[in-house]
């Protein structure tokens, strides 16, 4: 299991980081573009609002589609740790007991996580981190929008 996750990281780590980074940038630029365009108009452009909102929703779904399988895998590893420990406690066969305890130790000591290129760990906390970062960048962009560079 651990070697499979490491192989996945080695094989698809760069692809996953490019996907996460491009989605992150799109999640910043799309609402910024929407806000800037809606500010400059006297009437509400419903088609622009609808199109940009649907695109932002698709980006959020993409982030969740990346994170959720990783989260479910980590939950299954935790469940396997619990079940192997429970079976090891109730085992009456000495040979099976020894092997179950070895496997239980292996599961407990191995740090199972998806971390493409070692830059971030893909878990549900990544969604909150992305949401906070997008909000922060949007606030910064909107504060400095419309000012000349010489004013700073």
UniProtKB/TrEMBL annotation:
It comes from the Eukaryota. GO terms for biological process: chemosensory behavior; male courtship behavior; sensory perception of taste; signal transduction. InterPro entries: 7TM_chemorcpt (IPR013604). It is a multi-pass membrane protein. One of its GO terms (cellular component) is neuronal cell body. Keywords: Cell membrane, Membrane, Receptor, Transducer, Transmembrane, Transmembrane helix. The chain crosses the membrane at residues 12-34, 46-67, 126-144. It is found in: Cell membrane. This is Gustatory receptor. The lineage of its organism: Eukaryota, Metazoa, Ecdysozoa, Arthropoda, Hexapoda.
């Amino acid at each position: 299991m651990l070697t499979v996750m490491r192989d996945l990281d080695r094989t698809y780590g760069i692809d996953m980081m490019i996907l996460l980074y491009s989605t992150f940038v799109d999640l910043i630029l799309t609402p910024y573009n929407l806000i800037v365009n809606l500010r400059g108009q006297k009437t509400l452009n419903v088609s622009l609002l609808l199109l940009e909102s649907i695109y932002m929703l698709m980006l959020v779904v993409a982030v969740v589609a990346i994170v959720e399988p990783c989260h479910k895998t980590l939950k299954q590893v935790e469940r396997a740790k619990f079940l192997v420990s429970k079976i090891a406690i109730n085992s009456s066969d000495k040979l099976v007991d020894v092997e179950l305890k070895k496997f239980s130790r292996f599961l407990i000591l191995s740090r199972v996580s998806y971390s493409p290129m070692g830059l971030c760990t893909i878990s549900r906390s990544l969604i909150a981190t992305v949401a906070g970062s997008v909000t922060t960048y949007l606030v910064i962009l909107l504060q400095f929008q419309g000012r000349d560079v010489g004013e700073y």
